[in-house]
Amino acid sequence: MDPLDRLGRPLHDLRISVTDRCNFRCVYCMPKEVFGKDFQFLPRAEILTFEEIERLVRIFAALGVKKIRLTGGEPLVRRDLERLVERLALLGDLDLTLTTNGSLLAQKAEVLASAGLRRVTVSLDSLDDATFKRMNDADFPVAKVLAGIEAAHAAGLAPIKINMVTKRGVNESSILPMARHFKGTGMTLRFIEFMDVGSTNGWRLDDVVPAREIVAMIDSELPLEAVGPSYRGEVAARYRYRDGSGEIGVISSVTQPFCADCTRARLSADGSLYTCLFATAGTDLRAMLRGGATDDEITTAIANVWRVRTDRYSEIRSDQTAGLHKIEMSFIGG
Hints:
With 334 residues, the protein is an alpha/beta fold. The chain has a single domain, classed as Alpha-Beta Barrel (TIM Barrel). It is 32% helix and 17% strand. It contains 13 helices and twelve strands. The protein has helices spanning 3-7, 50-62, 81-89, 105-115, 129-136, 142-154, 175-182, 211-219, 286-290, 295-307, 313-316, 319-322, 329-332; strands at 13-17, 67-71, 95-100, 119-123, 161-166, 188-193, 224-227, 237-241, 247-251, 264-267, 272-274, 283-284. The chain has a twelve-stranded mixed beta sheet with strand order 7-8-9-6-5-4-3-2-1-10-11-12. Strand 11 (272-274) and strand 12 form a beta hairpin. The longest helix is centred in the N-terminal third of the chain and has 13 residues, at 50-62. It is globular, with a radius of gyration of 19 Å. 42% of the residues are buried.
């Protein structure tokens, strides 16, 4: 059966949170005021096993998913992650990618590439150590993340994307230095508007640096021109440098939402299916996996959820939605 006959709308991208743990306590999704040293993360028994993840990926692939992105938390803190990558790489022609804060990437890049990982996206919010620490509460310098990026490049995990969350009053002064640094490297720097993900990051609209302001700031020194999307549902608006030395992207879910074209679903570390980054509840697939459900029963459950999804959080964002208790991004995956 054609996947669209079961789903009603395309589902091309599955983001899998392989752990809810992270070695950052960033202002964006794991503020230290909440995720301190005594925070209780998920017990190991509640987290999906590699075998369970592999089974679900098979099912999602049959429903039309083409891209698998491993996230977290920080996915590289999951022990033996390369074993999962190896299992998923054997499933066929999937675009197998990973998003990481880069802190462990230098040690892991080569083994992940050998296991079958294709690409990485690295989160880096500033080149300045003080600003970087303010955004992420990291106990290591930016140089460690840059070393991880270089290791990923050497291992062939390309094209590499660099994600920079921009927050007013914290790191907007890093926008141009980041653009200068990555221009001409073959890596795509993407600027992400500070979003109200979860319920603990203290989001305010005044903290958002709009995408149009970011583009104008860069264009004033490094001239840009707009580029069309490379596929339906691409979340980043693309701009290339007029001198041909690469491109940037801006993800503007606050000022220019793209809910209507969303083709991605999320699977939390404990096996819940979410149809939106701003979700307040999910569908428990782990119970089905461990309760003896057949693949067809799980497929039907996924299709039933996806077919009736009405997520429009970024389009209807208001004082009312701001009060919703949303799932934390460290749990649902970025």
